[in-house]
């Protein structure tokens, strides 16, 4: 017996890369359009990333500061994806749905705390 195969998994090479770029762009646009928190974090990133390049003394410091900011965006995107998938399944109040959404929110908060800690440690030295 063979395992089921997704019709979307057959692309390879340049076609796969171009599809991935398109999906990425679609995801970023959707998050920016529909997620207030993502928009706020993008605007913060547009401020903090150049600031990290200016304030970091070494390449490692700059990389850490920028990675912390990008980490927040990544976790926010994953949280938004979980919320969208869960909302697609059901909008009713359910303990498992609440748990999934609360865990996503907690992940975002940990990413934000991580960014603050990294920036503080780099800047205070």
Main β sheet profile = none
Overall residue-averaged pLDDT value: 94
Helix content: over 70%
**Could you tell me the radius of gyration in angstroms?**
18 Å
Give the count of helical stretches.
4
Instruction: Please report the total strand number as a whole number.
Output: 0
Give the structural class.
mainly alpha
Which overall shape is indicated by the principal axes computed on the Cα atoms? globular
- Regions with pLDDT < 50 over 5+ consecutive residues? none
% residues in beta strands: under 5%
From the N-terminal CA to the C-terminal CA, the straight-line distance is 59 Å
Order of helices and strands: HHHH
Q: Could you give the topology of this structure?
A:
Layout: H1 13-34, H2 36-55, H3 59-89, H4 95-124
